[in-house]
Amino acid sequence: MKKLIVGNWKMSPIHAKDAREKFVAIKKVASTLRNVQTVVCPPFIFMGDMKKLVSGHRCVLGAQNAWIENEGAYTGEVSPAMLASMGFGYIIIGHSERRALGEIDELVNKKILAAVKAGLTAIMCVGERERDPDGEYLKYIALQVRAALKGVQRKDLTRIVIAYEPIWAIGKHAVRAASTDDALEVSILIKKTLADLYGLSAPTSRQAGKDGGSAGILYGGSVDAKNAWEFLLKSHIDGLLVGRASLDPKVFGEILKSADKIK
Ligand code: PGA
């Protein structure tokens, strides 16, 4: 099964030329890998320009956000239908940095429903701010998953990818990356939550067939060239959501290559 490796460029780089160069360098590696689906999510403003550089399916572009309606008086927003019409298939929804700007569970849920309806694959982010010894964070994550999936039908689960991103492990102020056991614990929790919600008996794979297909699970937070393989090997996940390291084509290329080796 292909691993899904998503690069979230956030609000970088500043120049279109840099964006193009980075993408070309990433694509050079990604297009040689059979076992990896690579998705690069640049800022919106570069997407139209960068689309010309996409060739084939192994390395494609995705968005970092979109609105809940497809057209109308929503100044500054971009719609799921626009993304679909441009041929972009993936969208990150509910990233903790957007939640920190005020995106609440209800809005995340509406965005997921709108994205799925437009035919996009939604990479929905969940994760706790901190870990408490009593395990309250597990309840918090399960509630986030339930809230985000409200109204999502079982048949649409193949269009959902759930990225576990503990906030304490994200970005340059991260305490540390999560351990592979931390990620494993939550990947099991998410699978159990999906099983509870959808009555799936063994929701292990997003490509397990049309009916049995469940949501894929990613880990994100301080993923780098050194730890990527370990998460993929030990945490029972389908891929990775990579921030800082995805802006360095050399490091991201290493991550992609290590993912390709894991069957
Ligand atoms: P990071 O970010 O890899 O830079 O920690 C991950 C993310 O925010 O998706």
Give a short overview:
This protein has a single domain (3-260), classed as TIM Barrel (Alpha-Beta Barrel), CATH 3.20.20. The chain has helices at 16-30, 44-51, 80-85, 96-99, 105-117, 136-148, 180-198, 228-234, 249-261; strands at residues 3-8, 36-41, 59-63, 90-93, 121-126, 160-164, 216-220, 239-242.
Overview of the molecule:
Residues 202-212 have low confidence and may be disordered. The protein has an eight-stranded parallel beta barrel with strand order 1-2-3-4-5-6-7-8, surrounded by seven helices. Helices cover 37% and strands 16% of the residues. It has helices spanning 16-30, 44-51, 80-85, 96-99, 105-117, 136-148, 180-198, 228-234, 249-261, and strands at 3-8, 36-41, 59-63, 90-93, 121-126, 160-164, 216-220, 239-242. The termini are close together. The protein is of the alpha/beta class. The chain is built from nine helices and eight strands. The chain has one domain (3-260): TIM Barrel (Alpha-Beta Barrel). The longest helix has 19 residues, at 180-198. Helix 1 packs parallel to helix 9 (249-261) and helix 6 (136-148) packs across helix 7. The structure holds 2-phosphoglycolic acid. 2-phosphoglycolic acid binds next to strand 8.
CATH architecture: Alpha-Beta Barrel
Could you say which structural class the secondary elements and strand pairing correspond to?
Answer: alpha/beta
Radius of gyration: 17 Å
Q: SSE order, as H and E?
A: EHEHEHEHHEHEHEHEH
Strand percentage, roughly? 15-25%
Total number of β-strand segments?
Answer: 8
Total number of helices? 9
User: How many domain units?
Assistant: 1
Portion of residues in helices?
Answer: 25-40%
Q: What gross morphology would you assign?
A: globular
CATH superfamily: Aldolase class I
Largest sheet: 8 strands, parallel, barrel
Distinct ligand kinds: 2-phosphoglycolic acid
The largest beta-sheet arranges its strands as: 1-2-3-4-5-6-7-8
Uncertain regions: pLDDT < 50 for 5+ in a row?
202-212
CATH class descriptor: Alpha Beta
- What do the pLDDT scores average to? 94
The termini sit apart by 7 Å
CATH topology: TIM Barrel
